[in-house]
Design goal:
Blueprint: H1 7-31, H2 36-59, H3 66-88, H4 94-118, H5 125-149, H6 157-179
Helix pairs in contact: 1-2, 2-3, 2-4, 3-4, 4-5, 5-6
């Protein structure tokens, strides 16, 4: 008789265990004298905590929008690995490492943001349009950020600001308008 494993439960318990271990390491680092190792442990704790929040946000739509969830999970895991590698490595190639970390953070935030917007159950027809506009603005903002991080192109700061402000406004207004 084969035992059926629930991937969601395995992932959840792995996540819980990782957070507990990370929290205990962070607390122990704060309990001792300041050292470079303690600073790295605290950075690792913050990295694991931050990317874990992005993973949780991405998971909320895994049944209805699995590609958004998987994109968020994968980009967050890659981001966690890259950031931890940056914290603990002795490499002098900081510029390229930070670009990769910045790209991973940008993708992780984009997927988490999209998942939270897609999690809104539209009560009115125009809310689905508002969701699509919001995700489009978030995607455009992420694309611009990645291009700026990688120095592919210079953008007019006013243009970037307008897109980012419109993205924030739509992010706030979409769930509020759905409730009115």
């Amino acid at each position: 008789m084969t035992k059926k494993y629930n991937l969601k439960k395995i992932a959840l318990w792995t996540f819980i265990t990782t957070i507990i271990i990370s929290a205990l390491l962070g607390i122990s680092a704060l309990s001792g004298q300041y050292s470079q190792t303690n600073a790295k442990v605290l950075g690792s704790t913050a990295t694991i905590g931050g990317f874990s929040l992005l993973i949780i946000s991405s998971i909320v739509v895994y049944k209805k929008y699995p590609y958004v969830s998987y994109g968020g999970i994968i980009s967050s895991l890659i981001g966690t690995f890259l950031f931890l590698n940056f914290i603990w490595s002795n490499s002098n190639d900081w510029d390229n490492q930070l670009k990769l970390v910045g790209d991973a953070i940008t993708f992780s935030v984009l997927f988490a943001h999209s998942a939270l917007i897609l999690n809104i159950q539209p009560r009115k027809k125009f809310i689905k349009t508002a969701q699509n506009i919001t995700i489009g603005l978030a995607s455009l903002t992420a694309l611009i950020i990645i291009m700026m991080i990688n120095e592919s192109i210079d953008f007019n700061i006013q243009f970037v600001g307008i897109i980012a402000i419109a993205n924030v406004a739509m992010t706030i207004l979409t769930p509020v308008l759905n409730r009115t």
